[in-house]
Amino acid sequence: MLDAVAYRTRDEEGTQTPLETLSLASGSCRDIAALFIEAVRLLGLGARAVSCYLYDADASPGVGSTHAWAEIYLPGSGWIAFDPTHRHVGNANLVPVAVARSNRQIMPITGGYVGLPEDFITMDVTVRVAREAPSSYALSRYVTDIWSVRVEW
Known about the structure:
The protein is of the alpha+beta class. It has helices spanning 18-24, 29-42, 137-140, and strands at residues 6-7, 26-27, 46-54, 65-74, 78-83, 88-89, 94-100, 126-132, 146-152. Helices cover 16% and strands 34% of the residues. It is globular and about 55 Å long.
């Protein structure tokens, strides 16, 4: 099913329905995640949406991206990360920010503006994501990734 859907950047607000994503044969990461979540739920497994940032150690400072993926509850294993956009299992380089039943409950950036168009000139947002070492040896035995996320505007 996922081979029939291509990734595309989509700046429109909200998430396409799984049927829209299939009929268009394309969608953003949040659209593909929503399709994947719906398919997994039809199989009888628990699934939830995750809003996150992608971490890329090779990227220039200040360059990053929001991302959406899914977690599937596998009995005996717990919640496992699935990134259907990149066809990837596991949460390496995915920095979770929020988890909910659907994408509309965890939109990373939302808001509005009230006023005249000429009053609003511009707004810059910078997100800095960094991998940090665990603060103690005891913690490092159980936790492999600790993330800090700083948003500036």
